[in-house]
Amino acid sequence: MYTERPSRLAGAVIWTGDGSGRVLPDGCMDLLWHEGRLLVAGPDTRAYVTAGASSTWTGLRFSPGSAPAFLGVPAHELRDRRVELADLWPLSEVRRLRSRVAAAAAPATALEDIALERAAPPDPALRALVTALDAGRPVAATADEIGLGARQLHRRSLVAFGYGPKTLARILRLRRALALAGAGVPFAETAARCGFADQAHLARDVRELAGVPLGRLLAAG
């Protein structure tokens, strides 16, 4: 079972689940709590499929581009990875935080408190980039609108999101398409409304990013 709610940290989401299933790329990174461990889920470029016995996980999902400032690590170093927080921060500090979360009445609240204490203000340019790309704006036009050259935008995107703006746009487009198709919009209309060349283009992107056909993905959801 999976549940989520808005976090007290702006733009973030708190979630709990059993750790099983297919996690799709979303442009985000997560701080995770699981059986006494603190971990970080880096930005995915393809579906992350979990296996093994189910158990309770709690996570704080940062808004796109905001986790690296909290972690002090560029997102591209964690691309398609799950790592122990102790691999990124001093072990003594992580031990203190683990004890703090373990002693809390609600691990989710403890994760939020930690994030609120350390989070940096959102970067207005990156926030504008995500908003524009999520609305289907072209990457080149968006770069011009926020006043960044192509190379500078690519460098900043690697640090913030783990990949370039074209990959981010592709992932956000997939999320829009899944929302429409999941609401019953025909696949061909979904493709047209989300900016795919045609339904076959949508099908290819779903297979590449999610690892399964669109119909199977929706049925599993």
TrEMBL record:
InterPro entries: AraC_XylS_family_regulators (IPR050204), DUF6597 (IPR046532), HTH_AraC (IPR018060), HTH_AraC-typ_CS (IPR018062). It comes from the Bacteria. SMART domains: HTH_ARAC. This is Helix-turn-helix domain-containing protein. The keyword Zinc-finger does not apply. Keywords: DNA-binding, Transcription, Transcription regulation. Residues 123-220 form the HTH araC/xylS-type domain. The keyword DNA-binding applies. PROSITE patterns: HTH_ARAC_FAMILY_1, HTH_ARAC_FAMILY_2. It comes from Streptomyces pseudovenezuelae. Signal peptide: none annotated. PANTHER family: BLL1074 PROTEIN, HTH-TYPE TRANSCRIPTIONAL ACTIVATOR RHAS-RELATED.
